[in-house]
């Protein structure tokens, strides 16, 4: 993962030269070696059987992509607020309050929302809200008003995070064997950290594309907009993964539980 991060960040500074390509290729070979070792190990760090379940696999991939976009939101919004909007660091920190004021309250009531509306409904709603927010943020430019271009989509970001992360976590440990419970929980956290590091590295590399000739606030605004466009694509990919992996599995699980309850009542 370190090699992946270094390679993508280096591409933004030095371009896709031999060293950058070599670093990315080395990362791929090391990752393949890790998988081969885990397949043969009697006590693997990451049991590959965790990925035999479609819902869990989708949850790991979806979480990595979702966190990639969200970490990109914090990183590039900070750049925008300080280097484009001209806020001092303390004010830039306070400017993130709209993103946090609804996150925790929403996360607290998510279990009740899931019981009322269902796991899939809450998950998909959270992702759709996140996509709208990221598209909105990508339109921020030099001279944009903070309240309409940043604060309002920040509120949607907080709602999206509150609605999405809990269902993704539960899907990441769904139907896991007791002996693999710790590994499954660890895999959820690993997906989170991969999104935070590798995902941000990818966004930094994408943000640098097409920025030659720009300077100052215009350069930063261009890179921020590109990064949010890429973050939008990541969120759309997360939505598609969820629709084709998590949603069908969760629906089958709900039907199985309903049938079991009906059978118990009949008995």
TrEMBL record:
This is Putative MFS family arabinose efflux permease. Keywords: Cell membrane, Membrane, Transmembrane, Transmembrane helix, Transport. Signal peptide: none annotated. It holds the Pfam family MFS_1. GO terms for cellular component: plasma membrane. The chain crosses the membrane at residues 20-37, 58-81, 87-110, 122-140, 146-165, 186-210, 230-250. It is a multi-pass membrane protein. It comes from Aliirhizobium cellulosilyticum. SUPFAM superfamilies: MFS general substrate transporter. GO terms for molecular function: transmembrane transporter activity. InterPro entries: MFS (IPR011701), MFS_trans_sf (IPR036259). It is found in: Cell membrane. Its main location: membrane.
């Amino acid at each position: 993962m370190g090699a992946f991060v270094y390679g993508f960040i280096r591409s933004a500074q030095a371009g896709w030269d031999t060293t950058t390509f070599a670093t990315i290729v080395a990362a791929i070979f090391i990752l393949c070696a890790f998988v081969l070792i885990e397949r043969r190990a009697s006590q693997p760090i990451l049991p590959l059987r965790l990925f035999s379940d479609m819902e869990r696999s989708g949850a790991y991939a979806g979480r990595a992509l979702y966190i990639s976009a969200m970490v990109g939101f914090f990183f590039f919004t900070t750049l925008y607020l300080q280097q484009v909007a001209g806020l001092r660091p303390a004010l830039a920190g306070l400017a993130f309050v709209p993103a946090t004021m609804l996150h925790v309250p929403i996360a607290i009531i998510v279990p009740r929302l899931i019981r009322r509306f269902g796991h899939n409904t809450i998950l998909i709603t959270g992702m759709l809200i996140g996509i709208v927010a990221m598209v909105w943020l990508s339109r921020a430019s030099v001279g944009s008003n903070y309240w309409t271009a940043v604060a309002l989509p920040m509120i949607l970001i907080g709602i999206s995070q509150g609605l999405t992360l809990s269902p993704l976590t539960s899907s990441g440990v769904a139907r896991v064997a007791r002996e693999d419970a710790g590994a499954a929980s660890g895999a959820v956290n690993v997906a989170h950290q991969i999104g935070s590091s590798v995902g941000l590295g990818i966004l930094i590399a994408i943000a640098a594309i097409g920025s030659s000739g720009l300077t100052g606030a215009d350069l930063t605004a261009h890179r921020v907009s590109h990064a949010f466009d890429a973050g939008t694509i990541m969120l759309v990919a997360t939505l598609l993964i969820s629709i084709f992996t998590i949603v069908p599995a969760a629906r089958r699980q709900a039907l199985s539980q309903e049938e079991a309850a009906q059978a118990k009542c009949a008995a």
